[in-house]
Amino acid sequence: MAAHSIAEGHHGHAEHGHEEHHEQGFFSKYIFSLDHKTIAKQYLISGILWAVLGGLMSVIFRLQLAFPDMDMSFLKPVLGHWINESGKLDNNFYLALVTMHGTIMVFFVLTAGLSGTFSNLLIPLQVGARDMASGFMNMISYWLFFLAGVIMFVSIFLPHGPAGGGWVIYPPLSALEEANPGSGAGMTLWLTSMAIFIASSLLGSINYVTTILNLRTKGMSMDKLPLTIWSFLFTAILGILSFPVLFSAALLLIFDRSFGTSFYLSDIYIQGQALPNQGGSPILFQHLFWFLGHPEVYIVILPAFGISSEVISTNSRKPIFGYKAMILSMLGIMFLAFIVWAHHMFVTGMNPFLGSIFMLLTLIIAVPSAVKGFNYITTLWRGNLIFTPAMLFAIGMVSFFVSGGLTGIVLGNAALDIQLHDTYFVVAHFHLVMGSAAFFAMIAGVYHWFPKMYGRMMNSTLGYIHFWISFIGVYMVFIPMHYIGIAGFPRRYYQWSGFKVFDTFADLNIVITLAAVVTVFAQFIFIYNFFYSMFKGKKASANPWKANTLEWTTPVEVGHGNWPGEIPTVYRWPYDYSKPGAPDDFIPQTVPFSATPESNTPEENDLIAKEKEIENIKYDYSIHD
Amino acid sequence: MIYIIAILAILFVVLTFKVISQTRKIINKNRGTEEDSEYLGAADSANNFNAAALLIFWILAVVGTTWSYIHYSQYFLPEASSVHGRETDFWFWVSMGIITVAFFLVNTFLFLFSYVYRYSKQRKSAFYTHNNTLEIIWTTVPAVVMTGLVLSGLVVWNKITGEAPEDAEVIEITGRQFAWMVRYSGEDGEFGKSNYKLMDDGSGNPLGLDFADANSFDDFSNSTELHIPKGKPVLLKIKARDVLHSVFIPHMRVKMDAVPGMPTKFWFIADKSTAEMKAALNDSEFDYEIACTEICGKSHFGMRMVLKVDEPEEYEKWKREQKPVLTLNPDLLVNVPENLKARALKYIETEAPAAEAATDSTAAPVAAVAAVETK
User: Cα separation of B165 and B156, whole Å?
Assistant: First the structure.
């Protein structure tokens, strides 16, 4: 159907308009919609709901860590039997909270919520397509994600609790119900949910790649794609190549759990019984898991790069600095992302020689990452900066990425990782570099593209307040957390007071918790702003930020098929901001060089001759046998 | 101090809100219809405020980070008590130094540019698309720094993970839910074979010692304390009984996972005895501790074992005082094959010394602890 409507668009307006006036039922318009914009909104709202849940979970375990003697009876109405008679949080449930917080944030918020929202929204709009290559697959992708979410959500209410072995679900802990109550039904649902989630992610990713490669409008050569699209392309490729490995890891774990195989289990004596499993390797699981797990952090951060690039360039009124370097560094990061996974395993007993190799490769990845940081900052240099909420969040993203990324240089060094592995230093590192950075980019994206999603503007004053509380809050949480990490505090500890060596920093843990609580609750300002503006926000104009990319050439209320007439033709790159000689400080991609003789460079003047050629391109969308 | 910071933070947020809303109100009154213009994203009245706030934020952050670092560094771990630990600490602080400089430098540029280049009607942005020289420089500089760090890291890493010296004292440490157990080879210096299928908490053989192997007879174990000699290489052979665990000795900068079915190892030289640390820290309560750093279930946070670093002579003396597993659990004799019975009987004490062993509190028999922990 999508291909059908795309073909129509090129044949002329009349036919397409005919379809557009066709009344859509409530279900086909809002629920089982094939429209990429609706699907993007579905992903976004699901992502927001999951983020609220994941954020509130972190509040509970942060309270436990700061106030280990706190009476949590007031949470009894919510948590039920997980708060015991003396008002203490159950320590199995503490682990379950940590596990679910990680799973939800990494997969449901920062993968589905970020990629799902912005790839779906922006790919067709920015490459100039009527919709995704397959609208139907796209719809299936969302509803599989939804199903995965339902299953994960249900698992939280199981009598023995959800999965509790950490988001990395290392066996044997995750394989043996005797080892941890969450490894029973909770883990079964976790694995089922993730298997469905992977299917959803693959359907989405294949669609993204196909759409970007095949459905670009006339003139939209790869070197004219906005950096957002490049980042979504690389993200999708990463997902396609690495998620199946997680699937296989999960599948083998399902076999070990339910069918008596021994892929990951060997020589286990638990609760007075020696298990029959022999010859398996828990390290095998870790390799398979991190073969996805590491690319996963780039699946999270690459779209964040793309969104920040777009937002920073637009609001600096200045071309992104080093467009090609940005693409090349993302490409480099994508390749390297596949070959650094074992730096999560330096002290697992893996052969130390592998440790050396992975240290080398890991520290190489710092180079393209550094290039990206420098390029963002140079984009600001001599710009004319407009601090929209989106811009503030994008600047925050760059700051977090730099600050959090730097500690990766220490952690990537195998010798130094011995002491720091699985301490709060790691927790602080990745929460800054991928958690907060990607989260900020996601928020930036929402503020920036909200007018295109709902035809209205979000309130910017609330946006500024939201930014300032979140920005200060995140730093107040994660900078002190590094100190706790340097002192060697291990992760996933219910409390530290059992050890003399960890019986310090009580005051700092309180600071962190207070900052975390304020930061989490500040997000409700955003949520209020989001839903309020959806209905009551100020009406947006078609191009409120004076941006160059194609999505801003659509009408305020973007209809089905995106452009009422023919899809516009693209003539130039997306970053012609403040071009010398031009009357305005932006020239949209749809403006031909022949219309801007005053600002053309000699090379661009030569391209005028080719414009007719581009306009006369005829696409054949019919499917041949 | 913390409360002052918290109050200041809240005050700052409230003031931010006030200032923004007030200025907007005033400006909106004066502007009137301008709000309806096509260009909704134009720099608004808060633009200068946000620009200045970014810079002020950063200045406060520099002060705050520096102060909090200096203040809290007193709680960091004391100087490493192991030879390799001091080396990794050295490189850790070298790396931290480099990244701290980068942290301050890069963020300063970010926030300074944000302030300096805030929107002005009079100015137009520079059309500055790329600069190859600049980009080559800032690709090369991190690459060179990284190379240096990689090389230093490789040297240290290879040294730490290389083969343990021949004369290393070998001790086996096993993780279980939720405790550590250690085993020494006894007077013969040879570990007996062990097999997870022979593990039996009830009969006092939680480590699965194979008594068909005569080397097991004098092996002794402990589940509260690990004793090691000062100044001598110690090779920990690390095992896990049920799920993953990880041996972490913070003061020694030692960490290695314990994996069921795959023994791992870590060797190090502890060169500060427990007594020396007590004196150095002026803390008579001080003890080295072993923790678990791989999530292993509900009492993951409680897997504590005390590490005693003894002077070599004390250590030898302590070892001689320990009673083999077989001595403490004479019932295990049934597992000894007939042809070795005579040799095994040497380790079975007669009534009187056995009673003495039972009252010996320092021995902390594994069997007793295991029996308590197994519900």
Answer: 16
Q: A365 is written with which tokens?
A: 């990845």
Please answer whether residues A589 and A572 qualify as being in contact, where contact means their C-beta atoms are separated by less than 8 angstroms. yes
The CATH class given to the B169-373 domain equals mainly beta
Top-confidence range, A602-616, B35-49, B249-263: B249-263
Domain segments of chain A: what residues? Answer: 28-536
d(CA A294, CA A245): 12
B68 three-state secondary structure: helix
Would you state the pLDDT for residue A23?
Answer: 63
Cα of B75 to nearest chain A Cα, Å: 7
Residues of chain B positioned with their CB less than 8 A from the CB of A388: 41
Domain ranges of chain B: 2-26+45-118+134-161, 169-373
The structure's pTM equals: 0.91
The reply to whether residue A491 touches residue B293, judged by beta carbons under 8 angstroms, is yes
> Which stretches of A412-561 are DSSP H helices?
414-420, 424-430, 437-454, 460-486, 506-536
Q: How far is CA A526 from CA A191, A198, A304, A530, A538, in A?
A: 32, 29, 19, 6, 16
Say yes or no for a CB contact (<8 Å) between B113 and A384: no
Q: Is the pLDDT of residue B79 over 50?
A: yes
Sole residue written with tokens 């005028």: A608
CB within 8 A of A586, min separation 6: which ones?
A317, A546, A547, A548, A576, A577, A578
Query: Cβ of B19: how many Cβ atoms within 10 Å?
Result: 13
Identify all chain A residues contacting B54, using CB atoms and an 8 Å cutoff.
387, 392, 395
Question: Residue B264's beta-bridge partner residues?
Answer: B238
Tokens 């977090």 -> residue: A400
Instruction: Tally Cβ neighbours within 10 Å of residue B122.
Output: 5
Q: How far apart are CA A620 and CA A6, in angstroms?
A: 10
Token pair 């054949």 is found at A620
Task: Count interface pairs A-B at CB distance under 8 A.
Answer: 381
Residues in B touching A381 (Cβ below 8 Å): 113, 117, 126, 128
Fold classification of A28-536 is Cytochrome C Oxidase; Chain A (1.20.210)
Q: How large is the ipTM?
A: 0.92
